[in-house]
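S1.2 Input.
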Amino acid sequence: MNNKLNDGEMISFCSQMAMILHSGISAFEGISMMLDEQKNPRGHQILETIYAEMEQGGYLYDGMEKAEVFPEYACQMVQLGENSGRLDEVMQGLADYYSEEEELYQTVRSAVSYPLFMLVMMLGVLAVLMMKVMPVFQSVFSSLGMEMSGPAGAVLRMGQAMSRYSGILLGLLAALLLLFLWISRTQKGREKAAGWVRTSRLTGKFTQKTAQYRLASGMSMCIRSGLDPERSLELMEKLVDDREISQKIGGCVERMREGVFFEEAIVEADIFGSMHNRMIRIGQRTGSLDQVMGEIARLCQKEASENIWHKISMIEPTVVIVLAVLVGLILLSVMLPLMSIMAQIG
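S1.3 Output.
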């Protein structure tokens, strides 16, 4: 049971617990009810571990820690909820948080899938052109007592090489397909993909906005659960996986320990934009910081989605243009010499 629960599983667990707790049923009884209804073997084993720990006098937090499949952030928030008597609110907040995380992931997946499909189609068209169409033109040239040369000859030789090593190429395509399925279907794959996205210059703005969204969303839930801003930031430093943002959060926490107010420290750290900073100042002064951080999270999530869609909207026409240009150049490299020969014969 080393694999962490994915976002969908966390949504299911947290939303069920929130509904149970809102109904006035204790966490222990709720776990017992969920255990009786659980049919999935892995889920049943996880709930059994939690139930056994709680049966011995432990808390829900202790059971989740014992199961070793829950994110550290979720465990810490549950411990906070149990200590503050707001476990139902924390569970609902966690369900909402992981729902937003899943929505963001689905947005990225949808945005990337179509350009990848277009790229595969482009490579398929080029492969058919080089491996099937070019040999036909070679036969025409041979019947006229000539050989393909120049760019057309180079394309023909490339197509012949592709035909010769088609088994290897198909193996590579199958490996790429398996890699894509691994990334989209497994938690570890998602984490690896997230690492690649963070280190890519193309997606730098997107990762920054995603880190800001996670920070603001987590801060909203922590403050709503009764934590002060400093403790909330300490928790968020472990949650945010962007190194630059995490370092800024650490610096912000240090400034607050020196006596600097939260709104001043977070402005100095330059974590959010100027508009977001003004919202934080207003929220701190009016006592509605949790609501303001929730609104900032919504804005950052929207900006992250718009950024990735903007990048993808540029990739699609680029793929189409490159395909059209390559096909046109290949055909012209064949047709122009052929037309010249036909004109001489005529």
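S1.4 Remarks. The chain has 15 helices and no strands.
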